[in-house]
Amino acid sequence: MSNLENGINGMSLKNGEQSLTAGSGYIAGDQGQSSSNVAELKELKQTIFDILRDVRDPEKPETLEELNVLTEESISVTRLKGNQLMVNVEFTPTVPHCSLASLIGLTIRSKLQQCLPEIAKVDINIKEGTHTTADEINKQINDKERIAAAMENPNLRELVKACTSDVEDTY
């Protein structure tokens, strides 16, 4: 897989098909930061949304963007100490009792792990008040050991791969 140079302090994304465009919207932690740093974080936020926008729903043919499960406003990026990036993704399941919410979170995480450099820390959560068991699912999709165990299941791994592969790759 080729790297895409994104021009953010020499950091590269591990995805050769994404293009960068300046984004808009709130970037967490942008108070007191230089305008160039804020611009870099906005650009990275847009790039992350571009990476995730085509992730497909596990049981429907639509993408998470088309179903309004994921929007650009649901992503925030901050720069932590040591130049590490913190990426927060908040998604909204289509129904409050969605049985596949943890799988949606897993597909988002998998796609980001494929594309983001190792210096990025990722936190994925269900938007507050949009799912009946959000707290439990949030713990699952942010627990490295549970994620690793889930990805050992070949059926689950194939389902995640199908949801995260490019549309052109599935034909």
From TrEMBL:
On the tree of life, the source organism's domain of life is Eukaryota
Domain MIP18 family-like, chain residue ranges per copy: 45-124
Q: Mind telling me which InterPro entries this protein's record contains? A: FSCA_dom_sf, MIP18, MIP18-like
A Pfam family it matches: FeS_assembly_P
Which keywords does this Swiss-Prot/TrEMBL entry list?
Chromosome partition
Q: Which GO terms describe its biological process?
A: chromosome segregation; protein maturation
Q: Which PANTHER family match?
A: CYTOSOLIC IRON-SULFUR ASSEMBLY COMPONENT 2A, CYTOSOLIC IRON-SULFUR ASSEMBLY COMPONENT 2B-RELATED
Q: What is this protein called?
A: MIP18 family-like domain-containing protein
Organism of origin is Patella caerulea (Rayed Mediterranean limpet)
